[in-house]
Design goal:
Blueprint (H helix, E strand, L loop, with lengths): L4 E2 L4 H20 L8 H24 L3 H27 L7 H8 L1 H4 L4 H14 L31 H9 L2 H18 L2 H4 L4 H26 L4 H27 L14 E2 L3 H7 L2 E3 L4 H6 L6 H6 L8 H15 L4 E3 L2 H15 L3
Helix pairs in contact: 1-15, 2-3, 3-4, 3-11, 7-11, 7-16, 8-10, 10-11, 11-16
């Protein structure tokens, strides 16, 4: 796997990146703020964990009938997505807290929603963030099943209809993580990425398998053993929970990188991308619904993806304020600042982009 370098002969791009860092640093210094989380993050963590855990506890405590139990699993699905976006995501970027041990513990949220920390750090933190929207490096735009997310991958006749069947398929995202983590980890091991990133094979495989067994036992085994629900009622409810979480996760991430106007540049034959890294991030990322405070709270600031990609080690609580700085600096240097003003606009733009990718 050959990695690439970012370089531009335009001095203004270097000036933009330098001034942007200076402006952001000045914001924190002038306002005497930490770049990490604060008490609001603690409140948010308790809230989303309650949304995730309390419905399952209610099923056991009250031995709920199927209809109510099904509803509780659905609510827990919303909690699953909330924990992933608002807690786990910041923690694994070391932006939740200034203390490494707190970030590590909060990052374990990945385990309790059924997935794997090591895989996420490789796929998301390293490849997606460093090489956003670059075919062959950013796994988030790799062709999956019958989806085509990159204009540089082969076009198949079925892709013509992907804008119609994409949303139902998004419900499978967390299932793909739950079931696909092991093959993915094996792949990382085979190409040497596990060794490169100091992963102990025995440890990582043991953790993955052990965590998944515990997770499935808690969410499927225990309800079957200790409630009046039948095995198929539990299974139906569990699937519904993952469908809710998967749909939310997928749509939030897709609306940042697979929308109209967002670039998918490729490096040259010397493995050099023609823009500075900061400019590349603005060209390949879009914000959505920046004034929707409830959405912003729930998705952990991931509607401010531009700011997140530029400053992933800064807690998402600061993104609304930083967005004004980034947009003003980008405007000064003529760098694109992409944004869909509402959630509905972003969804429509995503669907139109899928349609374009299916007809190239």
């Amino acid at each position: 796997m050959k990695l690439i370098k970012f370089h531009s002969d335009e001095n203004t791009q270097k000036q933009f990146a330098k001034e942007l860092r200076q402006n952001v640093n000045a914001y924190f210094k002038e306002n005497n703020l930490s770049t990490k989380g604060n008490f609001i993050m603690v409140v948010k963590t308790v809230s989303v964990y309650a949304l995730y855990v309390l419905p399952i506890i209610a099923i056991f405590n009250y031995n709920l009938p199927f209809g109510w139990a099904f509803l509780m699993y659905i609510v827990s699905g919303f909690g699953t997505a909330g924990v992933g976006m608002s807690v786990m995501h910041d923690a694994l970027h070391n932006s939740y807290s200034k203390h490494k041990w707190i970030n590590k513990i909060m990052g374990w949220s990945m385990y309790i929603i059924g997935s794997n920390v090591f895989n996420w750090k490789i796929q998301h933190n390293i490849f997606h963030h460093a090489y956003t929207n670059i075919e062959g490096l950013d796994e988030d735009i790799q062709t999956r099943w019958i989806m085509r997310f990159s204009e540089h991958t082969p076009l198949k006749p079925i892709h013509k209809y992907q804008y119609l069947y994409s949303l139902p398929l998004y419900t499978m995202m967390t299932f793909s993580m739950l079931l696909g983590d092991l093959p993915q980890l094996i792949g990382y091991y085979k190409v040497g990425l596990m060794k490169q990133h100091l992963g102990d094979p025995k440890k990582e495989f043991s953790i993955m398998i052990g965590v998944k067994i515990i997770y499935l036992f808690v969410f499927i085994g225990l309800p079957i053993l200790f409630t009046d629900l039948t095995w198929y009622q539990v299974l139906i409810s569990f699937v519904a929970m993952h469908m809710v979480a998967g749909f939310i996760f997928s749509l939030v991430f897709q609306m940042a990188h697979i929308v109209e106007g967002v670039a998918q540049p490729m490096p040259d034959e010397n493995h050099v991308a023609e823009n500075e890294w900061a400019v590349h991030q603005l060209m390949t990322t879009a914000n959505f619904a920046p004034r929707n405070w409830l959405l912003n709270w729930y998705v952990g600031g991931l509607n401010f993806q531009v700011e997140h990609h530029l400053f992933p080690n800064i807690c998402h609580l600061h993104y609304p304020a930083l967005s004004k700085i980034v947009e003003a600096t980008a405007d000064k240097y003529g760098v694109p600042y992409l944004q869909n003003d509402t959630l509905w606009m972003a969804i429509k733009s995503h669907i139109r982009r899928l349609k374009e990718l299916g007809m190239d």
